[in-house]
C-alpha cells in the first residue's frame, strides 16, 4: 500500500453519497412536489443532492449530466424532457462507470445505458381518464384536448391511452388538440383559442394532459361565461392539491393521480446498487388512482394539512 492508495481507500469508505439530478423544470405543481420530495428524502438519508432545474430544455439537461460526470458523482438521475437524443450522453456516463436512473418520462435508448427506470404507466392514465368520460357522459360528446410537451412520454402515452378508448365510441370525438406545454398560463391561452374557434356551447369536455393546464383552462371557460365542470366537463391527470380544491368546488370533474414521491424508491435503488446489489429490475412501476368530486374535499384536506 502506498500512502496514496490508503488515502483513496479511506475516502471511498467514508465519503457520503453524491447524486446529480437533472430535473425537467418547474412547469407544474406536480413537478414542484416531486422536486421537493427528492430534496427532502436526500436530506433524510444524508445524501448530497446536486439539483439542476433544466427549464424544460433538453440541452440544459444534457449540460447538467455532463457536469455531473465531470464531478464524478456516485449516481445520476434524469427526468427526461423528451424521449429522443439521450444515447451519446448516456454512453459518456457509462464509460465513466456512473449509474443512471431514469425517472418519470421515458427515453428511447438501449436499456443497457441505464440502471433502471421508475415511472407510472402513462398509457394507463389516458385509458382511465377516457373511461371516466365514457361512463359518466351520455350522448354525443365533442372533446377539446390540451396536450403536454411535444415529444414527452407523458404527452405521447396519455394521448395514446385516451384515444384508444374513445376510438371505440363513435359518439365521442376530439375536435381540437394542441400543446400547452404542461403550464397553467399556456393552458388558459390555448383554451381561449379553442373557445373562439368552436361554438363554446358545442364543447362537451376538456381533456388536459395535466392538472396545471386544466386549471388555466377552467379560468378561460369561466371568463367566457360558461360553467367549468358542468357545461364543459374537466378531465385531467396528476392530482395536485389545487385541482382537488377545484373538484371540491365543482369546477373540475376527475383526475388520475400521479405519485410525486419518487425520492424513496430512487435512493433505495442507488443505495442498493452502490452496496453491490446487481439484481435491480429495469422498470419500477408507481401507481395512481382515479379521483372525482365525491371525495375531493377530504382528499384536499389530507394533502394540505
Ligand atoms: O403530469 C406534469 C408534468 O412527466 C408525468 O410532467 C410528468 C408530467 C406531469 O409537469 O404535470
TrEMBL record:
One Pfam family matching this protein: Peripla_BP_4
Signal peptide region: 1-15
Domain Periplasmic binding protein, chain residue ranges per copy: 20-277
Any single GO BP term: transmembrane transport
UniProt keyword Flavoprotein, yes or no: no
Membrane-spanning intervals of the chain: none
Localization (cell): Cell envelope
SUPFAM superfamilies membership: Periplasmic binding protein-like I
A cellular component term, taken from the record's GO annotations: cell envelope
Main location (coarse class): other
A single GO molecular function term of this UniProt record: carbohydrate binding
Record's keyword annotation contains Membrane: no
Keywords noted in UniProt: Signal
Gene3D superfamilies, A to Z: 3.40.50.2300
Listed InterPro entries: Peripla_BP_I, SBP_2_dom
Family indicated by similarity: Belongs to the bacterial solute-binding protein 2 family.
Name of the protein described by the UniProt record: Sugar ABC transporter substrate-binding protein
Organism of origin: Aliidiomarina soli
Amino acid at each position: 500500500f502506498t500512502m496514496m492508495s490508503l488515502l483513496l481507500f479511506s475516502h471511498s469508505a467514508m465519503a457520503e453519497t453524491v447524486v446529480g439530478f437533472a430535473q425537467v423544470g418547474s412547469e407544474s405543481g406536480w413537478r414542484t412536489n416531486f422536486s421537493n420530495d427528492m430534496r427532502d428524502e436526500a436530506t433524510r438519508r444524508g445524501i448530497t443532492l446536486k439539483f439542476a432545474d433544466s427549464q424544460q430544455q433538453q440541452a440544459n439537461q444534457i449540460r447538467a449530466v455532463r457536469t455531473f460526470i465531470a464531478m464524478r458523482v456516485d449516481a445520476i438521475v434524469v427526468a427526461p424532457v423528451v424521449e429522443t437524443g439521450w444515447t451519446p450522453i448516456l454512453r459518456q456516463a457509462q464509460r465513466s462507470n456512473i449509474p443512471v436512473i431514469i425517472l418519470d418520462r421515458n427515453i428511447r435508448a438501449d436499456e443497457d445505458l441505464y440502471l433502471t427506470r421508475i415511472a407510472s404507466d402513462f398509457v394507463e392514465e389516458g385509458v382511465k381518464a377516457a373511461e371516466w368520460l365514457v361512463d359518466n357522459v351520455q350522448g354525443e360528446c365533442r372533446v377539446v384536448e390540451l396536450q403536454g410537451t411535444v415529444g414527452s412520454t407523458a404527452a405521447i402515452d396519455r394521448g395514446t391511452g385516451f384515444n384508444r378508448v374513445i376510438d371505440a365510441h363513435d359518439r365521442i370525438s376530439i375536435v381540437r388538440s394542441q400543446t400547452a406545454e404542461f403550464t397553467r398560463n399556456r393552458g388558459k391561452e390555448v383554451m381561449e383559442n379553442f373557445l373562439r374557434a368552436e361554438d363554446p356551447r358545442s364543447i362537451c369536455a376538456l381533456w388536459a394532459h395535466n392538472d396545471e393546464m386544466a386549471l388555466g383552462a377552467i379560468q378561460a371557460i369561466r371568463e367566457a361565461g360558461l360553467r367549468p365542470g358542468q357545461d364543459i366537463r374537466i378531465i385531467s391527470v396528476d392530482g395536485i392539491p389545487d385541482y382537488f380544491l377545484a373538484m371540491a368546488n365543482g369546477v373540475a370533474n376527475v383526475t388520475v393521480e400521479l405519485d410525486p414521491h419518487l425520492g424513496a424508491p430512487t435512493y433505495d435503488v442507488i443505495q442498493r446498487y452502490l452496496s453491490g446489489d446487481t439484481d435491480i429490475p429495469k422498470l419500477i412501476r408507481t401507481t395512481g388512482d382515479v379521483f372525482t368530486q365525491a371525495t375531493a374535499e377530504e382528499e384536499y384536506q389530507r394533502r394540505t394539512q
